[in-house]
Design brief:
The chain is α+β, with helices and mostly antiparallel strands. It folds into three domains: about 140 residues, ATPase, nucleotide binding domain (Nucleotidyltransferase, domain 5); about 80 residues, Dna Ligase, domain 1, CATH 3.30.1490.110; about 110 residues, ATPase, nucleotide binding domain (Nucleotidyltransferase, domain 5). It contains eleven helices and 20 strands. The strands form six sheets. A five-stranded mixed sheet has the order 3-2-1-6-11, with helices on both faces. The protein has a five-stranded mixed sheet with strand order 14-13-12-17-18, with helices on both faces. A hairpin with a 2-residue loop joins strand 15 and strand 16. Helix 8 runs parallel beside helix 9. The longest helix has 25 residues. The protein is globular. The C terminus is likely disordered.
Length: about 400
Amino acid sequence: MAESDIIASLDIGAAKICSAIGRIDERKRINIIGLGCSPPLGLENGIVADVELLTGSIEKAVMEAEEIAGVEVESVFTGIAQSNLRGVNSRGVVSIPGANREINSRDVNRVIEVAKVVAMRSMQESVQELVQEFIVDGQHGIKNPVGMYGFKLEAEVYIATGKPSTFLKTVIECIKNAGFRVEEMILEPLAAGEAVITPSEKKIGVLLVDLGSETTCIAIFERGNLTRARVLAVGVDKITSDIIGRFHLSEPAAEKIKRDYRCAASAAAADKKIDLPGDEETVISQRELSEVVQRRMGEILSLVKREAESARFPMGMGESVVLTGGGALLEGVTELAARKFNLPVRVGKPDGRVDQWGRVISNPAYSTVIGLLHSGMKTRQLAEMSSIGWQNPFIKIKSWFREFF
């Protein structure tokens, strides 16, 4: 099997560090052949507290995936989830010079740069650029205009801006120290969408909500394109803190209760008592627990709704909401979200299989790590197009990443 047929991803989260390895078949489908997870040692409260521990956790996750897959990898696709990221849609327009008016790589680079100039403000820095489509003489939907003839070239570009964080720089260094090269970094909301959202949903209009431990990622797709991506600095770990405060429990006990009795809608919970293992004196009401969970989830979903409304995502007009991430496993969360958004809601689960285990990866907690494989494959395919002389427009990482590779 050629090395180019193997692809690997790495999702560094607050709850777990997870790596996946896939094999790309002749039909450009990804078969998951390895999965490895490790505790996020060295990460504390959203910062890298111990570089050596984090490096070891990364190495353990990837090596576990390698052992199951029976292959070794040199590089990984990993994700970006900065809360200071902002995105804007921009259009660049250029004229095609020359008598024959054949579009070349320089024209493509030029129109993307114009779109960036139009969008950028002072003190902002472009982190990633995603070309939605090219337009040649008014003809929309063009993915690669090189070699076409025309008088005017336009590009619709989604540009994510923000300041590179020391956290990301340190994480990249830890990945290098673990012995792996970062092949590309990809917006996590975009990656999760690749794993769980269908092309028809993207065309009609869909709001993706990735409920993570410390962050909630949002992506809005309309007419087939990403129109907004945001990372909110709040996640379902807040529920654990709420349980600790309400019932005066230890963190391990609160986390176990959240996992075992994960009810987000009080109507779904009977007024039963929960006995804590190993502590006969502590008994709590399942209904009270449900109310604690529902209150916090309601606040998180309200923040998501506010963000969606600011993006002018038209609630209640036939679009839908897809929940994914570990928080989507909370019982009753779809009903709570349906009431909040007044839209159809479903839980998005990635599709894949680890051959050696016969284990189907249909858990929403794996959406990002699986989606990174799909986004990475697209990036590679478009990198092949760059052999004709123009840079990959699908996702482009700023040069500040490159100094670490």
